[in-house]
Amino acid sequence: MSSGQPGLFLTDLAASMGDERTIAEVWEKDGSVTGYVWITFTEMKEHGLAVAYVRDIAVTSSHQRRGVAQEMLHTKRGFRAYYVQYEKLFVDEITWS
């Protein structure tokens, strides 16, 4: 794929690390990567609250449907769904290295 998207992703990820609330975690089980999650926060000063955005989340195909995403968001962090947005991937499968 000859797009600038990976570079933009990494630039945004690095910039978000300046906020101590940012969550960027790679999950492993038995020495193998099972997934990752990246969550950023935005202050809504006029409402006196902060909003968490799941910027990216993925689970390897070998660990899908085993509760990994649920554990990453709900069990460990206490998040619950409020707004859901879908995006179409133009690749058959994500390759993990």
Question: Mind sketching the topology for me?
Answer:
Elements (H helix, E strand, L loop, with lengths): L4 H12 L6 E7 L2 E13 L4 E11 L8 H8 L22
Antiparallel strand pairs: 1-2, 2-3
Name the CATH class. Alpha Beta
Which range does the strand content fall in?
25-35%
- Which structural category do the helix and sheet elements fall into? alpha+beta
Strand ordering within the main sheet = 1-2-3
Mind describing the biggest β-sheet?
Answer: 3 strands, antiparallel
- Helix % is 10-25%
Number of strands: 3
Task: Give the low-pLDDT segments.
Answer: none
What is the CATH fold-level name?
Aminopeptidase
User: Can you tell me the number of structural domains?
Assistant: 1
Query: What's the architecture in CATH terms?
Result: 3-Layer(aba) Sandwich
CA-CA gap between termini: 16 Å
Shape: globular
